[in-house]
Amino acid sequence: MADPAVMAGGFSAVVGRSGGGKATSSPAENYQLARRRTLQVVVSSLLTECGFESAEKAAVESLTEMIQSYISEVGRCAKAYCEHTARITPTLSDTVVTLIEMGFNVNTLPVYAKRSQRMVITAPPVTNAPVIPKALIAGQKRTHPSHIPSHFPEFPDPHTYIKTPTFREPVSDYQVVREKAASQRRDVERALTRFMAKTGETQSLFKDDITAFPLIAARPSSIPYLSALLPSELELQTLEETDSSEQDDQTDSENTPGNNLNDDPGADKENSMLPPGGVVPSVKASEENMIDNPYLRPVKKPKVRRKK
Amino acid sequence: MHEIKMNRKKDKGFESPRPFKLTHQVVCINNINFQRKSVIGFVELTIFPTVVNLNRIKLNSKQCRIYRVRVNDLEAPFIYNDPTLEVCHHESKQRNLNYFSSAYTAAVSAVDPDAGHGELVIKVPSELWKQGDEMNVLKVYIEFSLDQPKGGLHFVVPDVEGSMAERGAHVFSFGYQNSTRFWFPCVDSYSELCTWKLEFTVDASMVAVSCGDLVETVYTHDMRKKTFHYVLPIPTAASNISLSVGPFEILVDPYMHEVTHFCLPQLLPLLKHSMSYLHEIFEFYEEILTCRYPYSCFKTVFVDEAYVQVSSYASMSIFSTNLLHSALIIDQTPLTRQCLAQALAQQFFGCFISRMSWADEWVLKGISGYIYGLYLKKTFGVNQYRHWIKEELDKMVEYELKMGGVLLHPTFGGGKDKDNPTPHLHFSIKHPHTLSWKYYKMFQCKAHLVMRLIENRISMEFMLQVFNKLLSLASTASSQKYQSHMWSQMLVSTHSFLKSISNVSGKDIGPLIKQWVDQSAVVKFFGSFAFNRKRNVLELEIRQDYTSSGTQKYVGPIKVTVQELDGSFNHTLQIEENSLKHDIPCHSKSRRNKKKKIPLMNGEEVDMDLSAMDADSPLLWIRIDPDMSILRKVEFEQADFMWQYQLRSIFLRYERDVVAQEESILALEKFPTPASRLALTDILEQDQCFYKVRQGACFCLAKIANSMMSTWTGPPAMKSLFTRMFCCKSCPNIVKTNTFISFQSYFLQKTMPVAMAQLRDIQNLCPKDVLNFILDLIKYNDNRKNKFSDNYYRAELIDALTNSLTPAISISNEVRTVDNLNGDVRLILEEITRSLNMEKLLPSYRNTITVSCLRAIRMLQKNGHIPSDPSLFKSYAEYGHFVDVRVAALEAVVDYTRVDRSSVELQWLLNMVQNDPAHYVRHKILSMLGKNPPFTKAAESPLCNEALVDQLWKLMNSGTSHDWRLRCDAVNLYYTLFGLTRPSCLPLPELGLVLNLKEKKAVLNPTIKPEQGPDTTEMTGNTMGVHIPVMGFTSSLDEGLITMETVSSVSMSSGVAPPPQGLKRKLDSVVGPLGSSPPEPGQVLQEEDSSKKFKIRFNTMEEDEIDMESPHDSQAFIHHHLNILERPSTPGKEPPAVDQAVLSLPVTPLPSSFSKESTSSSKHSGHHHHHHEHKKKKKKKHKHKHKHKHESKDKERDSHAFSNSPASGRSVRSPSMSD
Question: Which residue spans within B904-999 are E strands per DSSP?
Fold first, then answer.
């Protein structure tokens, strides 16, 4: 007999799909459909036994469903009982207990089985149990270590628990790498410049074929020195990497107009030297930043007396 | 000439040419309008009269509009007259350069502050001068404005959105030599020192940087502007005052807090990096001069569209913003440092120490150049220094041999000498403003070379002592605040300099000075030798060429170094009048068999393979004047093996001197042998060798390889070398990723491909594998891991592609099309296209790659691979591209103009010369046209026509009056195109009617009548139309204003060349009255038509009675006669040759070309008429009865004076006066 677990799985699979009506014909489905058809035959013969001459398809279908559920439940429970007693194959007693549990009078079973008017139905056509597709075997399956009894389940496939490299080994040949980098860059550049040339204004070196070597048109800029002198962002990155340490805090001490508007012309000068008291600590702290340069001094307010 | 100079003793003290001493000047600029590009302000000069009855004050001022002048609060009348605005007036018959040059010199002399002259003549109110002998202080207060100045101040106002500060608008002063008069009235002389107070009110978002100490910055009442107050307590010449205003970012030097740097917005990171070593330069100079930096602060300002890269002013320098660079850039770094060092050297000598006269300029340029050289030596090494000296010497020698000599210390009007000490030049060297730019550069070059010669003579220690002495004298004098007579100690003169030298060193350097300073030209030696085996003597023959232009005879010692087998020996030979041959005894016996080491000059001993040598001779090599202690060119014949030893010596350290190495490389070009090849290859591999020598060796090797084409074995020259040095070990066709850590290798890596591309095969094509090699270099170039930028390297690879180009096989002049493009060229073109396009997306530093691509495209055109077409270059030459790109594009257009003889492009270029906002670009166009002229005087060209002559003439005559340098460039170009005499394409000027053979009709002489043949009229019309409005000339035909011609009437009437020495006196006398004595309204003009001369007579009064004192509203006066500028008549002396020309041509009383009348007589009456009309309109004028002092002995002067009347309506020409 088939493995109950598989059976149960098979049924539930059928149950699950029953509404789908999918007319597929994979081996697994064929197998299940065959079982289902057998159940239908069983239901029909029982109905005939009970004296029905015909039945609606929906009724047959419902009864089939019910019987399938019942059998499935018996299988499931029997398996549970057997596992409960640390076995893997259900025995008769498991099934009996199950039936009892489900409220079935087991004693009536032999009588019922031997009733005279029962119909004999043909065995379901032999269909091969569906072949479980083999899991991808990656690497050698590990055998059980000595302390694990051999009846214990086998280790799963190694790919489920070990790191499996999924990429090809990179090409490490220097020449090829350089070659690739070079042609890649060239391709990108060419594509980019062609795109720019196609989408913008161009100048041409030839009169007969202005598309031959398109040059992006020269466009004057209002402040041409900026782009010519400032390093591009790309270059800046490299620059930052190399001399991020060189940053000095000059900018902090930049002109801060209106900061300390002071009418006394001498005041700034005194500030920059060490004033007698009060703010000494803070000045000391920033002494190095305190550069006495006339361009850093605050701008003075106009003198009022001059007003006319 | 020789003896004269020895009378230099005479000029002991400094004698001011002015009857007053300026002690203090206030410059206050209240308003700077960037939108209108205008400036308003006033100046106040404090002067002490040094004569009794100082009645007029001459100041310099150009293009300023002057509203009022007050002397001690009294309104003072004044006359503004700038003869340089239009040099030769509109008599246009004269088109010869001789005439122009002398007129121009005269014009410049007429306002020369060093002679006490000026454009602005102020009459001191009589109340003040009548006070008698009390030497009172006079305060001269002048209100002025500048509207769209064309010179002196340059506004850069980018056309973008935002406020002026956001747009990065800025303004700065500039000029060539003393040009401060362009932006405020002053005594624009390097010898008139005074203290300064400078005030600039600018927008609150801007910074005004100027000379001296910033005392305070104060907001205006509306808080929208602020005023920068500067005080410069050290007496300084006006010419050393500058200003720049802009939204600058401020960087206080982290090492020296008194030093402040300014740059345009967004460039601060670059500024930080570029300025990070300035303190080292400071330390260096202070140390060698044992003198503190003389000013209390120093400012550097980096501006866009700079006139020159570096210009130094008192306590500040203005640089081109293009000198700034980031840490990524290799090539620009030394250049920027050099510029900084130059600027700083000029702070000491040039700004702090000024000069007495133009003739002493060489001392300042010499000293600053010399100490700059010391800095180079210290920072960049002895090799670099010697290389530089050699380069400068070669450059200068080449120039002198080509153009005739460069005279460092010109003397004029002295003794029997002709007025012009340099008759070989087409310009006068009497004034800095008449000099060709190139000449001035060579002048500076020679000056520092001569200083080096002096150092050789007296030792560096003494030299520095002399400098220290000059500096300490000056700083003592500068601290004498109230003793302005002491200030002349701050002026250096040739005399005082030489005296210091003799005091300090006790040596007589007279002969040296006589040879190189008082005399122009260089020495040219030819050497050859023979070895006399019997006597064991080297017979050396040194000949000189002192007859061709630019050469002089040398008599004196000369050093010869002979390397023999037994060692190196120096011999000092005496070059004398008649001795050519010198016998030098050899020390070594010829001993080929014994293998001994050979001792060298530097004490080392080396082994040499002597198999190449002549078996009998112990000589290895000979060098004449190895220390470059003579300004000379040496051509020397040596057997080739000698050069090889010299060269390979680097490898073996036989000869360490880079100069010797470079000379031998040059000489080796003539010896294409396997031995030379080996020697050069050795050098390339030797990384101790100076990189510039190795770079030179690359090019030499390429040349040798080409000469050895048939016998050359192995791969193309340098290819395997390059592969070994710069390519990957595992894959030799791929270049390593860039690192550029070793700069020596970097420079070699850059140069080798460029040199390799010069290789040619038997078909005279660049070998295929060389081209592929270069293309691979470009392809595999990988800079991702590099901390430096590779833009210069990539640019040089493009240059290499350019070098590989050879002329296309032309198929009967067919049009170049894409289809018949040669395969290799297609590859090259593809690279160029891609690189150029990539530049648009990722621009490189200074757009070096674009520059190289443009050159490459021009070369493709020139070689016939692609159609020749200037339109691409013209678009890149437009204003708004980076200046390097523009110059490269313009160079291509200039080249196109020459090759295709295109008058359209020539016109386009000349238009740009007149209209471009960037002064540097204008200058560059003219100098490139001069270097690569569309045609020359020697050859016929369809481009050479009358219209062009007129256009260029106009350009130099009046179109470039705002920029001395540009005017001299125009003169140069005119000289290159037409020569000194009247251009041959012009019709003869004698007749009123001219037969135009081309058009087969007779027309009125165009110089007489502006309406000429239809064709020409159109041309002239064009040029006038474009030219005049733009340049702001108000003189147009329609206004009917007339220019009176008085030029050269002196020489005319006298009919003989002026006596020597006459020049100065005459100018004095002529210009004196000119400036201030206008003709009486009732003057009478007479002319003698028959003789084609005319005399003008008018009533004159005594000068003293000039009616200028009658009070009048000077402002109104100006407004009404804004154009009073007159012609100073500029009747300078003319060299005899010119006189002849002038006299023979009927030009002189040149009729004005404005007049519509065709005969000169009617023209003059017409003029007269106008004159009156003009007056009627402007009644005020009648108030001034300008009277002219009549000096009866010089009748001809009257005619000059006449033209100077403010009433003559001539004033048209003053831009400042145009309302």
Answer: 993-996
Query: pLDDT band at residue B1034, thresholds of 50, 70 and 90?
Result: very low
Decide if A202 is inside a domain: yes
Residues 6+ apart with CB under 8 A from B849: B791, B794, B795, B798, B835, B836, B838, B839
Q: Do A239 and B872 touch (CB under 8 A)?
A: no
Show the tokens assigned to B1145.
Answer: 């041509």
- Taking the Cβ of residue B254 and every Cβ of chain A, the question of whether any pair is shorter than 8 Å is answered with yes
Is the pLDDT assigned to residue A244 strictly greater than 70?
no
Name the closest residue on chain A to residue B861, using Cα atoms. Answer: A205
Whether B1081 shows a pLDDT value over 70: the answer reads: no
For the ranges A190-194, B816-820, B945-949, B1191-1195, the lowest mean pLDDT is seen at: B1191-1195
Cβ contact A190–B834 (<8 Å): yes
Contact A295 B842 (CB under 8 A): no
pLDDT 10s digits, B764-793: 899 999 999 999 999 999 998 888 999 999
Q: ipTM of the assembly? A: 0.75
Which of chain B's residues have a Cβ under 8 Å away from the Cβ of A232?
842-843
B interface mutation test: which of A252, A273, A295 has the most B CBs within 10 A? A295
Q: Are residues A180 and A105 in the same domain?
A: no
What range defines the domain where residue A207 resides? 173-242
Give the span between the Cα atoms of B585 and B582, in whole angstroms. 10
Q: Which of A182, A224, A235 lies at the smallest CB-CB distance from B882?
A: A224
Q: How confident is the model at residue B713 (pLDDT cuts 50, 70, 90)?
A: confident
Residues B690-717 have a mean pLDDT of 90
- What is each CA distance from B87 to A162, B107, B268, in whole angstroms? 95, 7, 45
pLDDT confidence tier of residue B562, bands split at 50, 70 and 90? confident
Lowest mean pLDDT among A210-224, B172-186, B927-941, B1203-1217: B1203-1217
**Nearby residues of B968 by Cβ (< 8 Å), 6 or more positions away:** B427, B433, B434, B435, B436, B437
A106 and A33 share a domain?
Answer: yes
Q: Which residues of A touch B867 (CB under 8 A)?
A: 205-207
Interface test with A, best of B300, B331, B733, B780 (most A CBs within 10 A): B780
* End residue of a domain, out of A110, A126, A154: A110
Contact check, Cβ <8 Å, B846/A229 = yes
Mean of the pLDDT values across residues B813-817?
67
What's the average model confidence in pLDDT over B90-99? 76
Nearest to B846 among A186, A228, A296 (CB): A228
Determine, for residues B866 and A230 on separate chains, whether the beta-carbon distance falls below 8 Å: no
pLDDT for B1183 beyond 70 = no
Number of structural domains in chain A: 2
B1102: Cβ contacts below 8 Å, ≥ 6 apart: B1187, B1189, B1190
- What is the rounded CA–CA span in Å between residue B595 and residue B608? 9
Nearest to A222 among B159, B266, B267 (CB): B159
Asked, for residue A119, whether it belongs to a domain, the answer is no
List of chain A residues whose C-beta atoms are within 8 Å of the C-beta of residue B842: 232, 234
Whether chain A has a CB inside 8 Å of the CB on B868: the answer is: no
- Angle (CA) B903 B907 B912, round 5°: 150
Mean pLDDT of chain B: 79
A238 CB within 8 Å of a chain B CB = yes
Q: What is the pLDDT of residues B53-62, one digit of tens each?
A: 888 899 999 9
CB of B162 within 8 Å of any CB in chain A? no
In this structure, what CATH number is given to the domain that contains residue A76? 1.10.20.10
Do the domain assignments include residue A35? yes
Bridge-based pairing of strands B491-492 and B354-355 is: parallel
Angle between helices B1136-1144 and B97-110 (to 10 degrees): 110
Q: Is residue A140 part of a domain?
A: no
Tokens of A123: 């065995």
Mean pLDDT of the region B406-433: 75
Listed residues A219, A242, A265: the one ending a domain = A242
